[in-house]
UniProtKB/TrEMBL annotation:
The chain crosses the membrane at residues 446-470. The keyword Membrane applies. It comes from the Eukaryota. It holds the Pfam family DUF247. This is Uncharacterized protein. Keywords: Membrane, Transmembrane, Transmembrane helix.
């Protein structure tokens, strides 16, 4: 009887434990489902997730991901003053709030800061869903305060809401015109546009603009998209064409995503020279000097030349002998922008794709040595102002360290077919031999003339010998 009692007690405990486990899992499932449900007045979770840069990537060059002038968003809250003495202080952001509030009161005299706070509080849950981190250490008050000040700072710099007539230039900050000095303006643009962690959702900017002016939401979209387009055009990353084209305009998730929307490879204009099967593996690109040894020529193209719309439009001619690559103008911000665009893709592949990563992998492997950079510079594929080619080659070699990318996945690698065609050409012994002959002898016209004379002389001797035998 005692054993039966012990057995009954253990069975009862087991049932209780299983019931507790079921309740725990049910609660977590309910929480998961509620976090995926539409929030914020019908707005679904943001399709673009802002995530912390992983240590494996950040350790290559942490300076490429940290703000120098202005810290934006919850990843940089509270703002460590020790990071940079030039980070925008609380006073700068409060001043921006004052400018927008004055502009709002010019149209709505009863507008107060409390109206901004209440509207942003309604968006708080939607905004939190746009980040990979929950930021449980930030209270609702801190989070909304951060959104308001950061959003006002960005809008005062990029849009320029005004509280007085348009002829009063002292109040307006026009698009493309630095509000203080050029160096400071460039630093602000670099921090708010280029950095993957230094972002707040675009719909926050829209909401603040909507509260500030009657046409505020439309003005935010128009002015900031114009600013981004001009930025990409001046950096020679893309030709002058809008990123959001009707009838299906795509509203960006944040400012970095807006830049990313400009970089999409053009569809192929000619049928492929070869068909790549799913079983074929491309593995990796060869270096530019290896391709040159196999007879592949590189040719740099400027924007708008032969249909080049962005730096991603790498094209192989029909014969597979010339690779046309958009000219890449390298400056101090090139590596920062490319790295952060890749980080955006690493966390949002389904939403934005991986074409920038595919392009960076291509360039990092083709231009990974000093001789490769020298060759590509001569072919006008790369233009740089660095002291020497060694520095550029090292930057290319380090560009994709820590990046996850499958070159054999056609959905990830839009250049997979091009890579495979060049690989087949590089493995061809006859093509390599002909390329060696051209490099060795055909570059010198006197050697070519001498070779032709030798061939003609040999042919004459053969003919003479044949006639002698016949006679």
């Amino acid at each position: 009887m005692e054993q039966q009692g012990q057995s009954s007690d253990s069975a009862h405990s087991y049932v209780i434990e299983m019931a507790q486990l079921a309740n725990e899992l049910t609660g977590k499932l309910d929480a998961l489902n509620s976090s995926q449900a539409p929030v914020g007045g019908g707005r679904s979770s943001c399709p673009i997730i802002v995530a912390k840069v992983r240590d494996l990537t950040r350790n290559v060059d942490c300076g490429e991901y940290d703000p120098d002038h202005v810290a934006i968003g919850p990843y940089n809250y509270p703002r460590p003053q020790s990071r940079s003495p030039h980070l925008a202080m609380e006073h700068d952001k409060l001043t921006s709030l004052g400018k927008l509030l004055s502009a709002a009161r010019a149209m709505r005299p009863d507008m107060t800061v409390n109206v901004y706070i209440n509207e942003l509080r309604c968006l708080e849950e939607s905004v939190r869903n746009c980040y990979a981190n929950t930021f449980a250490d930030m209270t609702s008050e801190q989070f909304v305060r951060m959104l308001l000040l950061d959003g006002c700072y960005i809008l005062s710099r990029l849009v320029g809401f005004q509280a007085q007539p348009a002829d009063d230039a002292s109040v307006t900050v026009e698009v493309g015109v630095p509000s203080a000095n050029r160096a400071e303006a460039l630093a602000v643009v670099r921090d708010v546009f280029y950095l993957a962690e230094n972002q707040i959702p675009f719909f926050v900017l829209e909401k603040i603009g909507e509260l500030t002016a009657l046409d505020g939401k439309d003005r935010v979209i128009k002015k900031i998209t114009e600013y981004a387009l001009d930025l990409m055009r001046r950096q020679k990353y893309k030709e002058a064409a809008p990123a959001m084209v009707p009838p299906q305009p795509t509203v960006p998730g944040n400012l970095l995503h807006l830049l990313h929307m400009h970089l999409k490879p053009a569809p192929p204009s000619a049928p492929p020279a070869a068909t790549v099967n799913d079983s074929d593996q491309v593995r990796r690109w060869r270096s530019a000097t290896e391709y040159s040894f196999a007879g592949v020529k590189f040719k740099g193209r400027a924007m708008n030349e032969k249909g080049m719309r962005s730096i991603l439009d790498v094209k192989l001619n029909r014969g597979g002998s010339t690779l046309e690559v958009p000219r890449l103008d390298i400056d101090s911000e090139t590596w920062r922008l490319l790295r952060n665009l890749m980080e955006l893709e690493q966390r949002n592949r389904e939403a934005v794709g991986s074409h920038v990563t595919a392009y960076c992998v291509f360039m990092s492997q083709v231009a990974c040595t000093t001789k490769d950079v020298e060759l590509l510079s001569k072919r006008d594929v790369i233009v740089h102002g660095h002291g020497n080619n060694d520095e550029v080659a090292k930057c290319f070699a380090d560009l994709c360290k820590g990046i996850q990318f499958d070159p054999d996945d056609p959905e990830c690698n839009y250049l997979r077919e091009t890579c495979w065609i060049l690989e087949k050409r590089s493995r061809s012994s006859s093509r390599r031999w002909m390329a060696w002959l051209r490099r060795k002898y055909f570059r010198n016209p006197w050697l070519v003339i001498g070779l032709l004379a030798a061939v003609v002389g040999l042919a004459c001797e053969v003919v003479q010998a044949v006639y002698s035998v016949l006679s």
